[in-house]
Amino acid sequence: MKKWKLALMAATMAVSTLVAAGCGGKEAATTNEIRLGANFELTGGVAQYGQSAANGIKLAIKEANAAGGVLGKQIKLVVADNKSEPAEAGNATTKLITQDKVIAIFGPAASSNVLASTQIAQDNKIPLLTPTGTNTKITVDNGKVKDFAFRSCFIDPFQGQVMASFAQKTVKAKTAAIYIDSSSDYSKSLSQNFEEVFVKNGGTIVAKEAFLQKDQDFKAALTKIKAVNPDVIYIPAYYEEVGKIIKQARELGITAPLLGSDGWDSPKLAEIAGAAALNNTFFTNHYSSQDKDPMVQKFVESYKKEYGQEPDAFAVLGYDGALMMIDAIKRANSTDSVKIKDALAQTKDLKVLTGTLSLDANHDPIKSAVIIEMKDGKQTFKEKVNP
């Protein structure tokens, strides 16, 4: 009888231990730290983006911890590398939730990798905030808002619309060619929105070509585009391929303005394309380092001190995303994941680096965009476009 009672007590304790270990936010409430996850592209094809976004988040958390933490606790950031692959992004999300017991997740950076992660977060009731994923399906799919998915960047329809309007109003383009990465949800979504607005406003798409991520030779498609002589060429893609496309386009004698998206924002773009080739190119972005806002200038100085380099937009959006999460935890006054989710959804008039941010009913920020012009390999502010 004694042995049976001892066995029963041991079993009860084991079950209690398992339940406590799987309680995410409840477990966090009994410790002196708040465990947040970061699922980013630290290696692979878009590592520059993931590293920058993660760096921005780390800096915001370092500053918050130095100021006394949040709810009297220090924030612990658990980082996972998704290797720039959707399958790995899903695995990283699962690991952060089930093994690392985080109460919320930042990332990933690329839309395809975010899309591979949102359902896992949703199923586990863990809020996921991407700083840079712009695809509309990240927060809304088949007309239904994903309760646990959020972002700190503007979305593709707005970005595509901004560049189409810029092409027609500022560049005075009547015809355009579109050259996309057909392996990227991000690229396909942007091209679709650019085309819709450009055509609606009286423009004509005279050519559409496609490439795949990691392609090296783009001259065959560029030769076809050159033959129809478009006023502008829209290339909504990531810096690795874009840099090579721009270089090869100029080598073929294409002088038309080349237009792009926030995926161009990387110091490596000028290294790959060459400074001269980038003249007469423009892209949509989330901020400009030339912004004189004291908050922006303080961040730029702190980032340079911390990492020894100028922050790009991905670092800025990572920092903004961390400010959003910290603000939500404070307003929720809790480390419970569901309460943090509810607080995130109610974000309004929060001052961040990219302006004053509020979330709409779809968990998408209402904010401005800027047009960046490349001059001799350097980013220069061209104009600002409000929502």
From TrEMBL:
SUPFAM superfamilies registered for this protein in UniProt: Periplasmic binding protein-like I
Domain Leucine-binding protein: 33-377
Keywords for this protein: Amino-acid transport, Signal, Transport
GO biological process, one term: amino acid transport
Domain of life: Bacteria
One Pfam family named in its UniProt record: Peripla_BP_6
Protein name from the UniProt record: Branched-chain amino acid transport system substrate-binding protein
Organism whose genome encodes this protein: Anaerospora hongkongensis
